[in-house]
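INFO batch 0412 | record 1 of 1 | parsing
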Amino acid sequence: MVRIADDRGGRIGTYVDKYQDLRQSGETVIIDGLCASACTIVLGAIPHDRICVTSSATLGFHAAWDFGANGRAVTNSEATQMLYAMYPSQVRRWISQRGGLTPHMLFLRGKQLQAMYKPCYMDAQASAIKPTRRSLPQSDQLESARGQLLH
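INFO prediction complete | emitting tokens
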């Protein structure tokens, strides 16, 4: 189980490599805090059913950028399109409804995020898997068990 709690992102290639390894590991990803910028690649790299979110989860999206000739940040349209294409359709729709990926950060959190991803049932280190309810034995099974104990 991998917990993301305060990840502000970084280089896209680094995150693609990191999440490909994580995808192959089969581990569940718990988003339990900020996951911004390149960190959000996790949404496209890890199967939807292996990601859960806590009430503290916040995703931050913006356009990809590089340093221009003058040393200032310049939007990289090609990388932005690639990043956008990695996201699941419901996340792309949410981003599009807010004007798309721009230099300004868009934050997805709370009820909107929880409507897209399953909640984590935990204690952060415990389990991200919802506890299963075991069916109770039928009354005739209980009587049979009681009879066996008495003999």
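INFO post-check: Residues 2-150 form a domain with the 2-enoyl-CoA Hydratase; Chain A, domain 1 fold (CATH 3.90.226).
INFO record closed
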